[in-house]
Design goal:
Largest sheet: 4 strands, antiparallel
Distance between the termini: 9 Å
CATH class: Alpha Beta
CATH topology: Alpha-Beta Plaits
Radius of gyration: 13 Å
CATH architecture: 2-Layer Sandwich
Number of domains: 1
Number of strands: 4
Number of helices: 2
Helix content: 25-40%
CATH superfamily: TT1725-like
Shape: elongated
Structural class: alpha+beta
Strand content: 35-45%
Amino acid sequence: MHIGSLLIELEITNGRTLKDKRHVIRSLLDRIRGRFNVSAAEVGRNDSVRYATVAAVGVANDRAFLDGMMSKVASLIDREPRVVVLDQELEFL
């Protein structure tokens, strides 16, 4: 069994209020969960209007499969026009 953890620091480009930010983050997390069957949540910078830290965690029998899936999750986030990826970290347990 392999566990992959992806941690991504984001800047919300049009975040003026916490409500704007939460709308963007909630939409992004729902798409990640629905498309890739992974757990995803906002895990940091909860009170910041312009910044967020999100994490996605998946479990699989094959590490190569998990690596590919996490790359697709990162790609989906990178393609989101309302956010800028500042940093990302992928870790396997």
